[in-house]
Amino acid sequence: MKLVVSSDTHLNCHYARMSPAQLEERRRRIRAAFIATVEYAIAHEAAAYLHAGDFFDMPDPRVAEIIEVTAQLGRLKAAGIPAIAIAGGHDVPRVANIGASPLRVFQEAGLLHVFGTSREVTPLCLEDGDARVFVGGISYNPRLGPDDDPLAGVTMPHDAGLGLLMLHYGVEGHIHPSANEPIITDESLRSVPGVALFVIGHMHPHALYHVGGRTVLIVGSTERFDFGERGISPGFWELGVRAGDVDARHITIPAQPLDQVTITAAQLPPDDPTGALVSRVISASNPDQMLRLVVDGTVDRDIYHAIRWLEVYSEGAARNFHFQLDTHGLDVRGERAMETNGGPISVAEEIRQAAQRMMDSAGDEAEVLLLAEARDLLLDKYGNT
User: Fold this and answer.
1) What is the CATH number of the domain that holds 210?
2) pLDDT at position 365, please?
3) What are phi and psi of 122, to 5 degrees?
């Protein structure tokens, strides 16, 4: 029996700093990664398609995303492949008992079987030759707190065959121990009777390991969604089940290029700091890439004022699919810093002041308007208003 397993597709993902055109193209690529999982399942005649949560990036996705998922689930149904899922933290309303997961739409349409939050799991039975798999799942429960055990009291009785349980929570050893959320411990994994294979969403790096004779599959995401995920390999899984044995293979999906360049203030030459920043941006650029330039450390006030930030940003934006200039870790010190007991000066305020000085000395109204537009664009990229 062959099963295709995906998770954390995060359709409808939002990027506040992207232009509308960039956001639409980025979302198209994220959809393409999800579509690749469906096409693989159909091409390889999977017995079932499983999704371990975070189908969407928010509980109220756009109609365009709903239409796409409807079409893809329809393709699976037409191919005779049942689609089975649980809701992840992004699929459910943030406030319990208000609204409903969009996955309900597909369940009502007969395109998707969605397990709820009940800890008394009634699994679905899949049979193919000598392979028999009982698939169960527990959707993410927003009522649980950091001290709650998502597996406490879980039961999934079934007949002879492989017990598979889908979950969507952080797992001990694969999420920061101080994370303010429920975490599944190794002890909990050992305690659930009748489950030989745990299929877990939520964490974007994938992993496969064993705990107390049980197999734990952390599915991982189908794309890299932020700069902190530069090192992960997105994709999905093909599971081959034969008489109770499971062979798991990770299928990589090519991701949109994503990179980060970090420069410290100490690396900036006093005679041409702008040139140094632009040079680094150019060398790291790729027209299909999302690139972030991080400038941090403590910089002399004169050097900071000598940097033509708009030029740096413009070069990055012109040479990459999307570019971010991050100076949140940059401290500007000088005369004003001493007046404020050595505290850092707001970069956003510096941009406003520099723009105002240039506007005050502008030659005509058109130049003033152009400078104001450039100021607002740069502040928007910083996330300031």
Assistant:
1) 3.60.21.10
2) 66
3) -105, 105
* CA distance linking residue 83 with residue 27, whole number of Å: 23
- 273, containing H or E segment: helix 273-284
Domain that holds residue 294: 258-345
Statement to judge: residues 207 and 274 lie in one domain: no
Report the candidate in 150, 147, 245 with the shortest Cα–Cα distance to residue 192. 150
Distance CA 289, CA 259 (A): 7
Q: Do residues 126 and 52 share a domain?
A: yes
> Does the residue 216 lie in any domain?
yes
Identity of the residue numbered 99: G
CA proximity to 10, closest of 213, 297, 204: 204
Cα 255 to Cα 33, 224, 226, distances in angstroms: 8, 7, 12
- 96-136: pLDDT as tens digits: 555 578 999 999 999 999 999 999 999 999 999 889 999 99
- What contacts 294, CB < 8 A, 6 or more positions away? 260, 261, 262, 263, 326, 327, 329
Beta bridge partners of 128: 131
Amino acid at 49: Y
In a domain, 380, yes or no: no
CB 313 within 8 A of CB 319: no
In a domain, 264, yes or no: yes
Instruction: Please list the residues that pair with 132 across neighbouring strands.
Output: 127
- Measuring CA to CA, how many Å separate 337 from each of 130, 299, 330, 349? 74, 11, 13, 13
Fill in the DSSP letter of residue 266. G
Residues 45-100: pLDDT tens digits?
Answer: 999 999 999 999 999 999 999 999 999 999 999 999 999 999 999 999 876 555 57
Q: Model pTM?
A: 0.84
Same structural domain, 224 and 296? no
> Partners of 5 in the beta sheet?
50, 237
Are 30 and 59 part of one and the same domain?
A: yes
The total of other beta-carbon atoms located within 10 Å of residue 214's CB is: 17
> Of 252, 275, 300, which residue constitutes the final position of a domain?
252
> Roughly what angle, to the nearest 10 degrees, separates helices 273-284 and 309-319?
10
Verify that 176 and 305 share a domain, yes or no: no
Residues 218, 291, single domain; the answer is: no
Task: Count up the domains in the chain and report the number.
Answer: 2
Who's near 334: CB < 8 A, 6+ residues apart? 300, 301, 302
Pairing mode, strands 197-201 and 183-184: unpaired
